[in-house]
Write a structure and sequence with these properties.
Largest sheet: none
Distance between the termini: 47 Å
Number of strands: 0
Number of helices: 3
């Protein structure tokens, strides 16, 4: 049986094994390197990775940012609408309080004042409940709009990922 030639010398306990460069085939090493590097460069042909769509990721992130901006704008508009309505309610309450104070200051019997206070209390409570409902509806409308924007983008992004995976699977 023929002994195969090794590119490394046999190591002794005192000397480490070093390659014998005089016996190496550099043309084969260079050809192998060129083949491996050539395969690597094919992966990034035209500045694009074959298995990963960088432009698609950038486009998706741009869409995500746009939706996030729109959601923040919708949330801000909702908060603004609630704050404006609360200010209107407070202004109206101060005006009503002035009217009620004048009505209760008029000279009448104790029974009439008691009846008037009960009527005003009932009307005030009903108005407060109506105001709370209105503010709740404004908040709910704003939250629904924001959630709808985010949900829509999430669904779109799932579809984009599925399409990207399908595209890569075809390669």
């Amino acid at each position: 049986m023929a002994k195969t030639q090794s590119t490394f010398e046999t190591a002794t306990p005192t000397t480490p094994a070093f390659p014998d460069f005089t016996k190496m085939d550099f043309t084969k090493i260079q050809a192998d390197f060129g083949k491996w590097f050539g395969d690597y460069t094919k992966t990034f042909a035209n500045g694009k990775a074959g298995l990963f769509d960088f432009e698609g990721v950038v486009a998706a992130q741009k869409k995500n940012f746009e939706v996030l901006t729109a959601a923040n704008q919708a949330a801000f508009e909702g908060v603004k609408a609630v704050a404006q309505r609360q200010a209107e309610i407070a202004r109206k309450a101060v005006e009503e309080f002035g009217k009620v104070a004048k009505e209760l200051a008029e000279p009448t019997s104790a029974e009439e004042k008691f009846v008037k206070q009960a009527e005003l209390t009932k009307a005030g409570f009903e108005q407060a409940v109506a105001n709370v409902r209105e503010l709740t509806d404004l908040v709910q409308k704003s939250n629904t709009e924001v959630a709808s924007l985010i949900q829509s983008r999430f669904v779109d992004q799932i579809e984009e990922v599925k399409a990207a995976v399908a595209k890569v699977a075809k390669m």
